[in-house]
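Appendix B, Record 12. Input sequence as logged:
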Amino acid sequence: MKKYDKSKYARIHSIESFGTVDGPGIRFVLFLQGCALKCKYCHNRDTWDINGGKLMSLEDILTKIERYKPYIIPSGGGVTVTGGEPLLQPKFLIEFFKQLKKQNIPTALDTSGMFDITDDIKEVLKYTDLVLLDIKHINSKKCKELVGFSNEKELNFAKYLSENNIPVWIRQVIVPTITDDVDDLLKLKEFISTLKNVQKVELIPYHQLGKYKWENLGLNYELNDIPSADSNEIKKVKKKLGLD
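Logged structural output:
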């Protein structure tokens, strides 16, 4: 299908029917295909190609979700859309979230926020109950080195969420020697303190479990010599951010 209605179809990488880490409760997690960032630590390297994945209809996805409502709703869960980068397919998200809201199913969006606040983005956020915002790096120069883009758009995205009182969980991957610098952590803490809508701060320990995906694609994994973040590393970061 070369041409299709982007409000009724989406390119899907995969589906997780009983997710427990991408928002509260049990989640139906939809992984959309495509990402413009070049995160060196990405554990889903195979999601980057916007033309990859499987084309699925809105109707088929909603039918799948219907089967899991008896588990999702009583748990206080809902549906989380992640990726890749879901906001690359905003027309689909608008219609998808509208339909979920009609069924009183809570919606969550896992995004980098590396976007201008367009009318489509605003419309998506109107139907979003929770944003899982992955702040790549608080230092703009280091952010560009790590993911290919500076952080101005994602920080502006965070401010927009705060101004419009859209609940957010702030996430940051803790990569030893890259995102655990004390000065950077203090700046991150200061930035988070300016936001009025933060419900939770999640520190995600860096690991190399997705390294094989890079290798299977014949690509060089640049962080090969960076050790995984252990529990002591996370404790140190929590202390700096006042989360312990």
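The chain has one domain: 9-240.
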